[in-house]
Amino acid sequence: MPIHIDIHGYSVEIFSFHTIVVGSGAAGLNAADSLYGYGQRNIAVVTEGLQMGVSRNAGSDKQTYYKLTLAGDSADSVADMAQTLFSGGCMHGDLALCEAALSVQAFYKLVGIGVPFPHNRYGEYVGYKTDHDPYRRATSAGPLTSRYMTEKLEAQVKTKGIRIFDGYKVIGIVTDNGECKGLIALNKRQLHPKDGMFVLFNCTNVVFAAGGPAGLYRCSVYPESQTGASGVAFEAGVRGCNLTEWQYGIASVRFRWNLSGSYQQVLPRYVSTDRNGNDACELSAAAFFHPSQMLNNIFLKGYQWPFDARKIENCGSSLIDWLVYREIRERGRRVFLDYTHNPSALQADFGNLGTEARAYLETSGALQATPFERLAHLNPSAIDLYRTHGIDLSAEMLEIAVCAQHNNGGLAVNCWWETNLKHFFAVGEAAGTHGVYRPGGSALNAGQVGGTRAAMYIAHNYTDDAPSADDFIRLAENMLTRKIQLAERMLNNHKGDNVRKIRSAIGDSMSKYAAHVRKTGDIRKVMEEAQSQLAGVAEQTTLAGAHELADAFENIDLITAQYVYTCAMCDYAANGGGSRGSYLVCADGDTDADLPAFVPCNEKLYGMIQEIIYRQGICHTAWTNVRPIPRSDDWFENVWKDYLSNNQY
């Protein structure tokens, strides 16, 4: 039962739990379920919206889960998989080893609770190769794999009676002497000043699974319901890492969805129009390569979906992304995929396709007359998906852009997914466990492994009860007072309603200047503007009423994240960082050229990780060497002895 207190005239509820999980995606729900499995009972999930978030609302053509090889005669091992993850650059070796070692445990748990991963008649969970994957480790339950995971894990959490606080937005983390002590939240269902709007959560541990800062970009594949809460963590002094590293790729914009896999392999026509949809013409690649190369690169976008700085030179497939970007950003036009007509370069007998593309279509029986017919043959559910969102691919073109899809960086964690703030763990996309390049689908595995590891450590090491309510109130009162005062200052601004305008400006500036094409001078301007905006955000925000308070606090969170992320990008450039991963760093010059000059990758930085911390309105950065893959004692008797003594924790 909650305790009710009065602070500055506000009626505030206080709930006490041993561990709070923030977020209700696949990573967070698995953390809660795992905590229960390891014996913890006094736990709760706090979520802004149970039906919100990436896990439940995003996917791809064949959404991938990456794990150890579990079929056939291909040699594979935990060490091999760890090396694959580690070799992507800027990834700590102990995290790579954990993600490899627990991948089978995490995968079979999902199988056991009903996620429909396919297996053959003998029980082998067969796989396929994904990007940056030397083996056939990838598997899929279809385009909605993460939704299935989330739904099945939610059922487990509810069956166990774990309490879910639905509709609560975390706006502050209570700390004391470098330790997390609890949370401040807004009850979005009770946004009435002085009557239950603010809620305190008193706890021993927090598992932060709020996802990445999805709301930073306007051109985004993230569902609109996902914004993230990284700014709250930075405000609490949690260290970030690899914040420069994102994934971007071609996606539809009216309904946000990755256009990978068969959406590209069926060879749709790329069409450019003016802003009003007139002056339609086929997107030209004449400045870069022969028309047949354009065809083969469209096909390769199915496998090589993320924009990749290494695939710009030598007529690589990422030139497709550049062409789309140039039309939209530099020429002010719109770009569409047309599934009703073939690209003009495609011969009737498919004779000018490369060996790989032709063999794939022939083997799949997909040599029909139009891209739509080929897609209907290869993947009819891909057509149905768009039809359910009011888009008929047989009759209309699909508007696209190069969009932000995933943050490979995030909050820095150790091998138990604990941050530098003690008792505060980060899992899922909130955790910065990926390097520059990662195999497709490794994010789903990392989220499951991270939640499991955090639960294991909490259950064996952090078992003390939460502080008494009186002690917690003394710790939380100053921060809560500041949040109340901030809310009152915004509520007292009756000059209109600019919450959506502020949000739009954040997304526009990040997509234009800090996405897959970057110029350091432009990013520095975004950074300076964000820092200035943070200093006066209460005075600059005008609300139509208390019902917009959650959105206003969300803007503050995003501006904080914008400042920290762009600080990281500027520091990266100052330390000799160039084009790598999923972005180009442009050299000084005219970006309206066919392809501007860009700064080459600094290979030395692959062995280092940039860390950043936000203190008193200023960012401080440091560069550390990656931790190598551990070479642990695998002699059974020694491991058994340590296990029985809990020495591994």
Describe the structure.
The chain has about 650 residues and is of the alpha+beta class. Among the domains are: about 245-400, Alpha-Beta Complex (Flavocytochrome C3, Chain A, domain 1), CATH 3.90.700; about 490-605, Fumarate reductase/succinate dehydrogenase flavoprotein-like, C-terminal domain (Methane Monooxygenase Hydroxylase, Chain G, domain 1, Up-down Bundle), CATH 1.20.58.100. It is about 35% helix and about 20% strand. It contains 20 helices and 22 strands. The strands form 5 sheets. Strands 1, 2, 3, 6, 7, 8, 9 and 18 form an 8-stranded mixed sheet that branches. A 6-stranded antiparallel sheet has the order 12-11-16-15-13-14. A 4-stranded antiparallel sheet has the order 17-10-21-22. The protein is globular, with a radius of gyration of 25 Å. The mean pLDDT is about 95.
Q: Quick one: CATH class of one domain? A: Alpha Beta
In terms of per-residue confidence, which ranges show pLDDT below 50 for 5 or more consecutive residues?
none
CATH architecture of one domain: Alpha-Beta Complex
How many strands appear in the DSSP assignment? 22
Instruction: Return the structural class.
Output: alpha+beta
Q: What is the distance, rounded to the nearest whole angstrom, between the alpha carbons of the first and last residues?
A: 33 Å
- The share of residues in helices is 25-40%
